[in-house]
Write a structure and sequence with these properties.
The chain is built from five helices and eight strands; from the N terminus they run ββαααβββαβαββ. It is of the alpha+beta class. The protein has a domain of 122 residues: Gcn5-related N-acetyltransferase (GNAT) (Aminopeptidase, 3-Layer(aba) Sandwich), CATH 3.40.630. It has an eight-stranded mixed beta sheet with strand order 1-2-3-4-5-6-8-7, with helices on both faces. It starts with 12 loop residues before the first strand and ends with a strand. Bound molecules: coenzyme A (COA). Coenzyme A binds next to strand 5, helix 4 and helix 5.
Length: 181
């Protein structure tokens, strides 16, 4: 089994309602709409966006990380209009043949099963196409929506990592979840 996670081209995925595709500069406005909402960024290591330049930088960072084989982030677009309403993806850990999953969605679309549909599809891609052995997620303790999503997808809690990461000026406890192949 290879533990190189570089892909020759960006894999587009399709679900019943969604297209999971690479984001481009044309999506910057839509990405800005997602991250300029404090409800979305409150459980993220990113500050709430105040300028479109931050969304343009996100597109560039995602492309670089994909090119370097460090990770992949799909833009989530609805099939009906192809407008990006969120994203989901992996940061690879080649040595362990594992990945960390991350995601966020514009609040207008919360609680409609959209992230369940998107993440279920990328989990399958990760296990079946990328040969992952397990996938982890790290969640801030009061992020109920994210924990519920992970539990619904079959992840199990491994407990709390005390003061595990530093962002937004302080250390944060994170609950780690895992899903084995
Ligand atoms: C976490 C997030 C992606 C969930 O997306 P979503 O599309 O609303 O999730 P789904 O509709 O697929 O819901 C999945 C499950 O979680 C539950 N759920 C979702 N939001 C919830 C909430 N606020 N409170 C309680 N349960 C919630 C749903 O009811 C569903 O379970 P059910 O089918 O058994 O009822 C979304 O809330 C979000 O973008 N939050 C801000 C960004 C973020 O926190 N990212 C993750 C950082 S770790």
């Amino acid at each position: 089994m290879s533990n190189d996670f570089s892909l020759s081209s960006f894999p587009e995925l399709e679900t019943e309602r969604l297209l999971l595709r690479e984001t481009t500069l044309e999506d910057a406005e839509a990405i800005f709409a997602v991250f300029s909402d404090p409800g979305v960024t409150q459980f993220h290591d990113l500050d709430t966006f105040t300028s479109i330049k931050e969304a343009i930088a996100v597109v560039g960072r995602r492309a670089k990380r994909f090119e370097r084989g460090e990770g992949i982030r799909w833009g989530i677009a609805r099939k009906q209009d192809n407008v990006v309403i969120g994203s989901c993806g992996f940061t690879w850990n080649p040595q362990e043949q594992s990945a960390e999953v991350g995601y966020e969605l514009a609040n207008t679309f919360w609680r409609q099963g959209i992230m369940t549909e998107a993440v279920r599809t990328i989990l399958q891609f990760g296990f079946e196409q990328m040969g992952l052995r397990f996938i982890v997620a790290q969640v801030m303790l009061d992020n109920i929506a994210s924990k519920k999503l992970l539990e619904k997808l079959g992840f199990q809690s491994q407990g709390v990592l005390k003061e595990y990461r530093f962002f937004k000026g302080q250390f944060h406890d994170l609950e780690q979840f895992v899903l084995n192949k």
